Amino acid sequence: MSEARRQEWTVSGMDCASCTVKVTKAVENLPGVSDVKVALMAEKLTLSLVPGTTKTSEIESIVKRLGFGIAARGAKAEGKKAFVMPGEPPAAKSDTGAHEGSDRAGATPSHSAADIGHGSPGHVHGTPAARGKAWYQTRKGQLVIFTGLLLGLAWIFELLTSTEWGYWAFAVACVIGVAPVAKRAFEALRLGQPFTIESLMTIAAIGALFIGAAEEAALVVFLFAVGEVLEGVAAGKARDSIRALANLVPKTALLEEGGKTREVPAASLEIGQRVFVRPGDRIPADGEIFEGTSGIDESPVTGESIPVTRGPGENVFAGSINTEAVLRINVTRTAADNTISRIIQLVEEAEEARAPTERFIDRFSRWYMPAIVIVALLVIFVPTLAFGGDWDTWIYRGLALLLIGCPCALVISVPASIASALSSGARKGLLMKGGAVIEAAAHVSRIAFDKTGTLTHGKPKVTDIVTAPHVTENDLLAIAAGVETGSSHPLALAILRRAEEAGVEALPASEARAIVGKGVEALVGGDRAWVSSPRHASELRGIAGGHIHRATQLESEGKTVVAVFRRAQPLGLIALRDEPRADAVDAMRQLKAMGIAPVILTGDNPRTAEAIAEQLGMDYRAEMMPEAKLLVIRDMSGGGGVMMIGDGINDAPALKQASVGVAMGSGTDVALETADAAILRDRVVDVPALIRLARGTMGNIRQNVILALGLKAVFLVTSVLGLTGLWVAILADTGATVFVTLNALRLLRFDPSREA
Asked: Total structural domains in the chain?
């Protein structure tokens, strides 16, 4: 049997969580289809499909029948158009044949004007705000105008004739307005989904006609359309902030070739090409500065408000602003792989990592809708059959109960908050991979920090060189540099820099290998040489007796000491110091104020670790091998949630073991892909900021759940008691969804750096 291939589509118009459920249930049982994922805010459908089973055109047809637009990821999403407003041109057909084998993760969905909504009246879900159109220019808006006109004409007709004739006018307005909704409800029913908002709406409208409430039925259809417009606008605003990231990268670039520059599309740039960036221009691609030194405003990418000076050899991000001087930059990443593109992809894919609270609410909503239907039937039949109640009265109240019982507000309460938080965090250089990570981060009680590159700058400098008798400083540096050549470890880079500054050429070396947690060895000048910790050197008789005390003294000053030696021949010591980041002390103070206990886990010696920990006011564990860090994290987890902050490579096991693993790094592959979360700005104070954002998000979710359930409870009671009718029920249902979404959007303005 052929292996399943991953397929991906853009599905336009999903602005409520029930939309994603409908799409998922509609396609997940098709032959050859598995692992279906529908992302609401990313407007994305992904699934695994076995070739030769279900055709992609069949999947698209089913999604369109539900009233959504669909197209291969990166193409224009367009739905079947069952109803065309007067003067509106017919939508162009998408090339479904091109969808076979499509798999363009990370491509930005594009939309045409015809993409707004599902193409017919009723539950039309477009995102007008996101498409740059006024609400009345969209199909959803035109539906509101159309149903409103029908309702108005019916009222005028009643005034000019009689109540009896007015009833039929309202009935006609209701039937015309609800027809496309009923069609969509029927399609959902055929696909095994009887409990949808469309079906409840259809039953309520038709039921109201049968009991003589035609005017109210027509009003309900109109209010339903109004609610859908508001719902779509709110969902569109949540997506706008993510789309805005893509707009940070300029559309064109000045490509430099043969001493001349020409304007080309930024998306066409290839690795190795050189671009010319003028002062005031946005940088068109991730790259490395070849020539020029200038201030770079990275706030669009990392949220860092203060421009940083970058020069030759330093990396820059696409979307950053060149503020001072002309730069020539070598492109190091294509448009599809630049930092902003990967941030957008990460935020979109984060929807798949759903929070436990979200999963619970989904399970709850599965039995909630059938339960509401049963309760509505009981409200209709028990008072009438058992107590002789009036049929029209109790049918009316039962129908109102059906409308108010729709769980849209409850189901959207979590994903709307999560999406807003992910987008808000991305703009501030705080990346979290989904709701599950946010919820875990909100419950963290302990944080373990790696030292080098996390609490410190990761750029140590050689401070002291101690040589053995008959060994010169240059000889020591030549051997040490030879062993460390090719290594990217911060200590190795510091030694190589010192050798270069001293004009010492590294001796040729071969067969270099790292000894995890101990050092590096290599074949230098035909004999084996080591650069290792004093402890490991002592085991191999690689440190002179008089140097042991000197190493201890240097370590007590907060310096890291390495011993350089050949086989049983000590050559000397090199001491290095990596200064703590300027904001580390303040970050620890903030964490303690939040009730979180920070601790350093480092492979460095106890004396150096103690000096750094004392300076920062932290506990510490020293001489930790990677596996030892993992065990410590496991032990710490017994007392509650644990967050591990590291570089994403050496600390991979610990990052994996922690409740939340956070990588620090300015847009590196590791920072974006290894851990559960990433801090782009290399600022320690962003750690408490990330936790504040997570806690603020969970607080927002609790508010949403209480708001959704509270409004439902109040109007369920008032509907049963007859205090509120059909039009209030639909208004309350849609209003709850809009209120919940707008409350979630407040997270877009949340400032996690501000202490409570």
From this structure: 3
Band (100; pLDDT cuts 50, 70, 90): very low
Predicted local distance difference test score (pLDDT) of residue 523: 92
For the chain, the first-to-last Cα distance in angstroms comes to 58
Q: Which residues make Cβ contacts (< 8 Å) with residue 719, sequence separation at least 6?
A: 397, 400, 401, 404, 725, 728, 729
Q: CATH number of the domain that 492 lies in? A: 3.40.1110.10
CA distance 478 to 507: 6
> 307 lies in a domain?
yes
Range(s) of the domain holding residue 110: 5-128
Average pLDDT for 502-507? 93
Domain boundary among 548, 577, 606: 577
Which among 110, 742, 261, 672 has a CA at the least distance from the CA of 430? 672
Q: Which residues contact 119 (CB under 8 A, 6 or more apart)?
A: 67, 69, 78, 79, 80, 81, 82, 83, 91, 139
Enter the tokens of residue 388: 């002789």
Distances (CA, A) of 96 to 99, 107, 118, 751: 5, 18, 17, 44
pTM score, two decimals?
Answer: 0.69
Residue 450 is a catalytic residue: yes
Provide the token pair at 439: 């919820």
Q: What is the mean pLDDT of residues 530-559?
A: 89
Residue showing tokens 């498409």: 131
* DSSP element (H, E) containing 745: helix 726-745
Q: Provide mean pLDDT across the span 637-665.
A: 80
| Least confident interval from 253-257, 594-598, 718-722 | 718-722
Within a domain: 66: yes
Q: Residues with Cβ < 8 Å from 90, sequence gap 6 or more?
A: 81, 84
The CATH number of the domain holding residue 317 is 2.70.150.10
Catalytic residue among 15, 115, 450, 578: 450
Residue 556 maps to a domain: yes
Q: Which of 736, 732, 731, 719 is nearest to 410 (CA)?
A: 736
Is residue 663 within 8 A of residue 648, CB to CB? The reply is: yes
Q: Long-range contacts of range 588-595, CB-CB < 8 Å, 24 or more positions apart?
A: 588/616, 588/617, 588/618, 588/684, 589/617, 590/685, 590/688, 590/755, 591/447, 591/687, 591/688, 591/691, 592/617, 593/755, 594/688, 594/691, 594/692, 595/445
Alpha-carbon distances of 70 from 445, 462, 553, 672, rounded to whole Å: 44, 59, 68, 29
**188-202, 259-273, 349-363, 486-500: the lowest-pLDDT one:** 349-363
HEC sequence for 576-636: EECCECCCHHHHHHHHHHCCCEEEEECCCCHHHHHHHHHHHCCEEECCCCHHHHHHHHHHH
* DSSP 8-class letter at 694: H
Does some domain include residue 404?
no
Is the pLDDT at 662 greater than 50? The verdict is yes
Mark which of 337, 370, 404 sits at the end of a domain: 337
pLDDT in tens, 45-55: 888 989 888 88
